[in-house]
Amino acid sequence: MPKRDYYEVLGVNRDASDDDLKKAYRRLAMKHHPDRNPDNPKAEETFKEAKEAYETLADSHKRAAYDQYGHAGVEQNSGMGGGGFSDAFGDIFGDIFGGGSRNRSNVYRGADLQYNLEITLEEAARGTETKIRIPTQEECETCHGTGAKPGTDPVTCPTCNGHGQVRMQQGFFSLQQTCPKCHGTGKIIPNPCTDCFGAGRVKRHKTLSVRIPAGVDSGDRIRLSGEGEMGVNNGPNGDLYVVVHLKAHAVFQRDHNDLHCEMPISFTTAALGGEIEIPTLEGHAKMKIPAETQTGKVFRLRGKGIQGVRTNAPGDLMCHVVIETPVKLTERQKDILRELEDINLSDDARHSPKARSFMDKVKAFFG
After folding, report:
1. In the chain, where does DSSP find H-type helix?
2. Does the pLDDT at position 107 exceed 80?
């Protein structure tokens, strides 16, 4: 299984600072540390993945190599030269039975990248189109990607003779590993380009247009094919995944395709009933409040939620009633409320059945 992009593993953008990297790693380490998840092997794998990503990106030299060449840039000096045990196994038996070495193209697909995009609830519901600006590695215009100074060319590596691999004899076994001189490219650059310093690519920023379909939710990903990390040795580019995050809304909270909101109503409306206006994403709607409505009552307005990307019908709007206690009362209002309280207490079983039931339970509890 191919490795995930290190920035995606830590959940940060490619221009993240050292502090951002450290905070992201600490958060993941605390959550997935094996000591906290002794019976969860998946957590241990996630912890190791985050550790590897942070150790690479926290080192400025490794990070520069990773930004230029992706995983290939930081794996070039590993013991097996990126080929792993299977390649070494094949080389051993190839020598024993005369199979010889295999040619390697050293062409790598660029890593996939991630961009975190915040949008409003309204934009998610209706869809939108926005532009994002991302850091990228582009082919150097001066050397046209060769890495060599104009008028010169890369030359065949004298150490590996252009194979990108060198063979090491260890007794009976013969192993291959990445050439330490050319780092697996098969070429060296005697006269590096003064603009890209031999890398063949330079860091730029590019602006992309992203169409957000109606109904997207937090965590949904939009794939931009070929807009990821540049491939190595003319390999294909990776993809860019735009991950959607919804901003907090002043009125609504989203739960999948349903919307929730708290609706304050007056004491008198709750007691006597009435009609109120409530907000929706499409404007205002009227809702009838029956008499004797209690705090916590939920009214459902069907079809006033959000129609998801993969659904045929919109969700519902759930209005949670909150009865508002009057404040800053006048003396006249206080007198009226005291009179009402006296009437209620005269027959509390009828007018306040919940309070009466609760008090009866309290008396029974204390015996």
Report:
1. 6-10, 18-32, 41-57, 60-69, 71-75, 84-96, 121-126, 267-272, 331-346, 348-351, 353-366
2. no
Strand partners, 320: 262, 298
- Name which of 105, 134, 139, 94 is nearest 117 in CA terms: 134
Query: Tokens 């209690």 identify what position?
Result: 294
Q: Where are the domains of the chain?
A: 1-58, 106-150+192-247, 253-325, 338-367
| The amino acid at 342 | D
Question: Residue 280: which residues within 8 A CB-CB, separation 6 or more?
Answer: 301, 304, 317
CB 243 within 8 A of CB 115: yes
CATH architecture observed for domain 253-325:
Sandwich (2.60)
| pLDDT tens profile 61-90 | 788 778 776 777 676 444 333 333 333 333
DSSP 342: H
Q: From 136, 135, 116, 133, select the one nearest 209 (Cα to Cα).
A: 133
Q: In the structure, what pLDDT confidence band is assigned to residue 1 with cuts at 50, 70 and 90?
A: low
1-58 — its CATH code? Answer: 1.10.287.110
